[in-house]
Amino acid sequence: MTRQDKLAADFEAHRPYLHAIAFRVLGQHADADDAVQEAWLRLARTGGDGIEELRGWLTTVTGRICLDILRRRGVRGEQPLEPELWTALGDLGPDPEAEAVLADSVGLALYVVMDALTPAERVSFVLHDVFEMPFDAVAAVLGRSTAAAKMLASRARGRIRLGAPTADAHSAARGVVDAFLAAAGRGDLAGLLTLLAPEVELHRGPNVVRGADEVAAQATVGARRDAKGHPALVDGVPGVLITMGGRPFLLMAFTVEDGRITTIRTLSDPKRLAQIVPSWVT
After folding, report:
1. Residues 6 or more apart in contact with residue 214 via CB below 8 angstroms
2. Rounded Cα distance, 21 and 281, in Å
3. Which residues contact 155 (CB under 8 A, 6 or more apart)?
């Protein structure tokens, strides 16, 4: 076995672990595959020279690649959704295969919320809180101080761990969402305006529509008679999965405060929607 063959074999042993990290950060298998492949190319260029601990080196490189991808993608939201995200995920062990399986189980709804974080917040949170990297290693990935890495992870944690709503609150919020969907289906602009907060925001990836009049107009224009809505719980907040022809078309998650919708987040990427499992649809 040549030195290059040995290096390739060592890399392949870490590939599931690296893909797990990349998928957790990026939310798309295709992007995760690209990030891991780029990590291999960078390793191959070095020939392994000067690398004392390969797993740590690859983790740092993959994290930096993911950070670059997020920055190019423009992942930065204005206002996060509110639920507890991680209680059902369990603890990650050191087994790369188990880590990869767990990464796949995160599901699409997580990334509706994760898109509300800045790239640095997202990377610091995933690397530290999920993969238990020490903050000095996270700081090396981000190119910042250890104190700054801690602050970023804490900020991310605070933005996405605000506590799940009570059962009564959820039931009331679901009623508001159901009324919104019914009014949108009827093209009832006046009805929609009674359900939307004046400063409501509709998030479509990096694009944001603000204001009740504008959001209501978008909702009536976007109504499709051939679409079917499935109530869904998106990590603790009421949502709906829209299907067309039996295929996922759009995922919507709603933040409801004082009986009015304040934020609507949507996800329409076909690749990410294809990851929805049937148990999400209630």
Report:
1. 202
2. 27
3. 121
Beta bridge partner(s), residue 281? 232
pLDDT in tens, the chain (282 residues): 788 889 999 999 999 999 989 988 887 778 889 999 999 999 999 888 889 899 999 999 999 999 998 888 764 433 332 222 222 222 223 344 433 333 333 334 455 556 667 889 889 988 988 888 999 999 999 999 999 999 998 888 776 654 334 455 567 888 898 899 888 888 899 999 999 999 999 988 778 899 999 999 888 765 566 677 777 776 567 888 887 777 778 888 898 988 999 999 888 877 777 655 443 343
- The pTM for the full model equals 0.50
DSSP 192-221: HHHHEEEEEEEEETTEEEESHHHHHHHHHH
CA distance 148 to 34: 28
At 265 the three-state DSSP class reads strand
Which single residue is written with the structure tokens 């104190």? 147
The string of DSSP letters for 77-139 reads: -SS---S--STTT----S-HHHHHHHHHHT-HHHHHHHTTS-HHHHHHHIIIIIT---HHHHH
